[in-house]
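Weekly modeling sync, notes
Attendees: S.R. (lead), two postdocs, one rotation student

Agenda item 3: backlog of single-chain predictions. S.R. asked that every request posted to the team notebook include the full sequence so nobody has to chase files. The rotation student volunteered to paste the first one in as an example of the format we agreed on. Action items at the bottom.

Example entry:
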Amino acid sequence: MTTSVERVVNLGSVGASPLYKAVKAEILDRMTHGEWARGEALPSESKLATRFEVSIGTVRKAIDELVAEKLLVRHQGKGTFVAVHNEDRALYYFFHLVPQDGAGKEYPTAELLSFGRGKADAQTAERLRIARGAPVFRFRNRLVLQGRPVLLDQITVPQALFPGLDEETLRSRERTIYALYQSRFGINVIRAEERLRARLCDADTAAALQVKTGDPILEIQRVAYTFNNVPVETRVSRVNTARHEYLNELG
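Predicted structure, as returned to the notebook:
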């Protein structure tokens, strides 16, 4: 049977990709399967080099990329750790609304409006890569900024990845939803894809955002991913842009 080390060496030897990419993939795979949990230190670079039968430089290059992608964090004098979701990370990497008056980002207040169980429709199943009709959880969150409702989220997640999720767990969480995914279910959201479009506000959204039916709003469709490009959440966010705008800092 082929071992993990043999798989890494073979990938590098056949030229399918640089050897450090194979080491990076192996580290990601071990993080995915819980060998190194959130906040936990990885073995030293020298130990990883011995384990994977590669040079320290190869390991370092793999780790450098994972640090640049915010999946690992280096603490000087302590080592390299699996990244942990906190409010700062959620605010700056996954939340993009800012006041139009030029003020900086502020952390929103979240209100859970509804929670329920259902079955994945065709679009949801495709986005989450699950079977059509597979059981899912659906919940709605409203985010408040500067005392006004600004964003309405309709979130869907597979029940198979979040066993035991319920309304009380969501309502009583002390931190962000992504932090809850990580701490309670071991699901680390590491990136998201978003599609934006303008639309007119329907009556249900208008009531939640305290605007008029037919007012222009921004709609953001997001799919969130964990390690190895596995989708774990789909959400539709509807934004009142009367006083706020979408800011995405590139580069």
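Discussion: group reviewed the output briefly. The first helix runs from residue 4 to 13.
Action items: rotation student to repeat for the remaining queue; S.R. to check formatting next week.
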